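Researcher: I'm preparing a figure for a lab meeting and need a structural model of a single chain. I don't have an experimental structure, so a prediction will have to do for now. The sequence is pasted below. Please return the structure as tokens so I can convert it later.
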Amino acid sequence: MTDGNGAGRPDPKATRRPEVRADPLLTAGLALAIATWAITLLTYVMDVSSVSTDLAVLIGLGVGVDYGLFMISRDRSDVKRGLSYETAAVQAVNTSGRTVLFAGMTVCIVLLGQFALGVSFLHGLAICSAVAVALTMATSLMFLPAVLGFLGPKLLYRRECKVLAAGGPAHAEAGRFWMGWAKFVQRSESSGLFSAAPGTSRPWLC
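Model: Understood. Here is the structure written out token by token.
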């Protein structure tokens, strides 16, 4: 159901089904199935270690679930803010998708950096792992948003659907724990506790 502004109004009877929770695993599984096939083809053109597939699956599963959770979390937040399901999926790609793209490219570059070591044994491991990461990144950016737009009201729990249908779009509010943690970090930064830690100085936070 959609209001006059095009914002999504979930049906209060809609429930969040198990497939929504499994979306990151399904997305990673699809990418790894393609990656395994690609690695098999690579064995015909270059020397690939017998453990390359196992390593690629482990790395791809880890980053694939992580990327999927980024996208789903953003999508659910936008739906609760009142955006339509299609718009929320597009917005997730435009925001969290940039993070996924940057993170995936960074991991691929780091993995391929093993070529600089000059150890031929690592070449196959690096390429196979980079292929797996690239494919999990691609499925998170292209396949997962389509699934999220298709699922629609199944993204939210029944309680969240009722609140959104009754009271309209909700403003994002940090949980009590995270709000307390943010205040603790701010106080600690002013006292110099975290000032020497990489990534926590004010220039990085701005």
